Amino acid sequence: MRRSRFFWLAATCSVLVSASGCGKSSSALQHGTPSDVRTEPKIQPHPGEPPDLVFDMKLSNVRPIVANSPIYDCTYQARGTTARFRVQIAQGAMSGEIPTASMEGKFLAVAGSDDTALLEDLEKTLDAKQSVKNVTKIPDLAFDGVVLGERQRRNPSGGYFSSPPGDWTTTKIFLPKGGDDGEVFFNFNPVLDKGEFSIKDSDYGDYVLKELAKVL
């Protein structure tokens, strides 16, 4: 079993989520005044850790049906392929001694996406043991989650810290919605227009890869 660099914070947040029942009071994502950090250190992950998968993630022109649940257009380009998908996110208010918030959302499939390279690279990120092939696509994949931190700044090892502040929001996603068969870290930066998947635990790799392959 492989533990990620977020394990200590994730464990704390898991306790808080369990205690609160992971309420679904949704609000618009609040980040305060952007720090406008447009450059980041070159990431040098710890030896033996899977690489994070970083992709472009921009606020979409598609208007959400539900208020305060913005939709983002996501793009991953590699080895001559372009994968496209969307993600919709709604979160509650940050609270607690170590501030966290409940979150929910869904990944949305986009027609014409070529996920060949994305799934190959995501397999490495999740430390999955089984590749996915001939997956039946679905229009959307709902999830629950927890916001672990807002206004976070990345350090050269790939981890995050809050002082001085940055523009990353760090979250952990639970699949399927209403369960916890799979977990994965999902982080995003609205200033850099970037998002990323990061491993939570290699034991979840095969399941998370198979589920995400349905919509990516």
Task: Give a structural overview.
The protein has helices at 7-20, 116-125, 205-212; strands spanning 53-59, 71-78, 81-91, 101-109, 140-154, 160-161, 168-175, 182-189, 194-199. The protein is an alpha+beta fold. The protein has one domain (7-31, 58-212). It has an eight-stranded antiparallel barrel. A hairpin with a 2-residue loop joins strand 2 (71-78) and strand 3 (81-91). It is globular and about 45 Å long. The chain starts with 6 loop residues before the first helix and ends with a helix. 38% of the residues are buried. Mean pLDDT is 84; it is low at 1-28.
Notable characteristics:
216 residues, alpha+beta, 9 strands
Summarize the helices and strands and which ones pair or pack.
Elements: H1 7-20, E1 53-59, E2 71-78, E3 81-91, E4 101-109, H2 116-125, E5 140-154, E6 160-161, E7 168-175, E8 182-189, E9 194-199, H3 205-212
Antiparallel strand pairs: 1-2, 1-9, 2-3, 3-4, 4-5, 5-6, 5-7, 7-8, 8-9
